[in-house]
């Protein structure tokens, strides 16, 4: 993971012939679109994801200067997106070497890149409950899982239960996702700066009956019995249930069993609710 310590991005006007004019401002990051219905090319999409999330390669030392064509053979090493292709490839965004940077991106392709970009900025708690997406059969490899994550991160909202994965993404749609993604990363980064660390907490949901699900939160394997996870409360809205939890770690001076443990907490929630996790 190669990451700026703060999302400080100069104001940029990103435009080429037949490309949407897109403005990226910092403090906080804000993406503005002047041509809302314009389509977004692969080169533009990757460039926006890298800049909006503040990805970089500052801590990488190369034996030879990298080129965009090292990662995408059809790239133009002098194009505006060239450096971003290098940065994306070095931060976990999987690029198809044969892709055409000038080709238009689909909503699914943009979502995959954005999800991989977010994952390149850190580890975030995410529940494992599978969300219903009505047009899931239209997704290719990796697309549905990426959209599942983005929905849980509140970066993407489904449209009547659909995502329209094969539709070309517009500049307006891309900007909305990028603004929400930048805000998500910034919020979690600020929490870490305040001294709170985020570790992965997984959520599993299993049906008790047709109306109730058993919800289990897990911290994964820990080296002793001093680790706990506690559900503090559940906040309900008409369609969502937010599970507030806290983590407890071993306290200095106390003795604990030196055995591998898997701290868990469980509760029961109606099956009609979408589950969200919130660390207190």
Describe the structure.
The chain has 280 residues and is an alpha+beta fold. The chain has two domains: 12-193, no CATH class; 202-279, no CATH class. It contains five helices and nine strands. It has a three-stranded antiparallel sheet with strand order 1-2-3. The longest helix is centred in the middle third of the chain and has 23 residues, at 171-193. Residues 1-18 have low confidence and may be disordered.
- The number of distinct helices, counting runs of at least 4 residues, comes to 5
Taken together, the total number of domains comes to 2
Net shape: globular
User: Which radius of gyration do the C-alpha atoms yield?
Assistant: 21 Å
Number of strands: 9
Strand order of the largest sheet: 1-2-3
Order of helices and strands: EEEHHHHHEEEEEE
| Helix proportion range | 10-25%
Main beta sheet strand tally, sense and closure: 3 strands, antiparallel
What structural category arises from helix and sheet content? alpha+beta
Q: What percent of residues are in strands?
A: 15-25%
N→C terminal distance: 26 Å
């Amino acid at each position: 993971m190669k990451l700026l310590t703060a999302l400080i991005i100069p104001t940029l006007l990103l435009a080429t012939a037949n490309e949407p004019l897109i403005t990226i401002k910092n403090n906080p990051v804000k993406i503005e679109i002047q041509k809302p219905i314009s389509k977004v090319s692969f080169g533009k999409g990757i460039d926006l994801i890298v800049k909006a999330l503040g990805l970089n390669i500052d801590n990488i030392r190369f034996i030879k200067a990298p080129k965009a064509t090292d990662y995408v053979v059809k790239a133009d090493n002098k194009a505006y997106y060239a450096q971003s292709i290098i940065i994306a490839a070095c931060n976990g965004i999987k690029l198809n070497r044969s892709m055409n940077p000038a080709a238009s991106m689909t909503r699914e392709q943009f979502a995959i890149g954005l999800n991989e970009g977010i994952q390149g900025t850190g580890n975030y708690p995410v529940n494992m409950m599978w969300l219903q997406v009505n047009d899931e059969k239209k997704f290719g490899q990796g697309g549905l899982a990426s959209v599942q994550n983005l929905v849980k991160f509140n970066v993407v909202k489904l449209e009547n239960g659909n995502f329209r994965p094969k539709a070309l993404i517009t500049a307006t749609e891309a900007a909305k996702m990028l603004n929400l993604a930048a805000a998500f990363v910034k919020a979690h980064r600020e929490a870490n700066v305040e001294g709170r660390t985020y570790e992965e907490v997984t959520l599993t949901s299993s049906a008790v009956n047709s109306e109730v699900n058993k919800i289990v939160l897990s911290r994964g394997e820990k080296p002793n019995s001093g680790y706990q996870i506690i559900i503090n409360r559940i906040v309900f809205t008409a369609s969502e249930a937010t599970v507030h939890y806290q983590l407890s770690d071993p306290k200095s001076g106390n003795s604990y069993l030196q055995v591998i443990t898997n701290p868990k907490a469980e509760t029961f929630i109606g099956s009609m609710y979408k589950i969200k996790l919130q660390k207190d």
